[in-house]
Amino acid sequence: MADLVSITPPNTEPVSLDDMLQLLGYGPSAYMDPTTFAMMSGRLTPLITAARVACENEIRLAFNTQSWLLKLDGFPGYDGLYNRNDYPGIRLPKPPFQSIQSFQYVDTAGILQALVQDVTYGNSGLFYGYQLSLGSDSQPARLIPSFARPWPPSRLVPNNVLVQFTAGYGGTKTVSIAASATAITGATFLQTDIGRPLSIPGAGPAAATLMTSIAAVDGGGNATVANAAATSVTNASAYLGNPVPGPILMGIKFLTQFYYEQGASTDQDIPKVVRRLIGPYCNNVS
After folding, report:
1. Could you report the per-residue pLDDT of 42-78, keeping only the tens digit for each?
2. Residue 11: what are its φ and ψ, rounded to 5°?
3. Which residues, in sequence order, are bridge partners of residue 224?
4. Disulfide check for 141: which of 20, 22, 92, 268 has CB 3.0–4.6 Å away?
């Protein structure tokens, strides 16, 4: 039996309130009077979240960065096809996958143990560990036992295998950076963030957006970027990762509009136009 628990929801939505105000014909929020803006914000904000969740559930993906805990009642058993066609692996739902936060199991003595990733193709000397297959934007990542090793024995209790992971195309981080510098302050990064794109509003030439990537991350989670900033920024809302595909964004917008116009009383399913926009990105595995 498997259970999936949300640990950290996205800190921002891929579709903004301004996006929806303009789609609905109200114009940018900067031109609205405070009373009207407050009313529209109170009505649209939860609908944007509801539409995003509905689209994520429909195609079994995660859009903006979020953390989940997968709870299993045991490791996958030995598969008779293992030698030729498959591995007794654990598929992580909600692609695109970003990183493993923890991988634990309850051993036969009832003690919670951590599994370590083997990146040496079986040459690490670890008896128990796991290999990681990253998957893709629409295919789940897989956790596979180390080469020529089984999964470790575990105590037969509920939820004896626990995998906490981060998923999503990308998300926002509040960062600061000085002009001519590459060191970022104000946010913690992971080793798995190295190479991921990062856009920092206001840090580029003439206060444009600096388009760069994470070049290095030290043991304390401090990062440096590949390109130095041209302009100093403080507490800027940077975006780490790849953008959510345009058709998915349009699908969320159209579904938000549908909820806005139909109201909570509707029992209609997701409109076909939304399904056609988001369907090509569907995770058909798990």
Report:
1. 999 999 999 999 999 999 999 999 999 999 999 987 5
2. -85, -10
3. 183, 216
4. 92
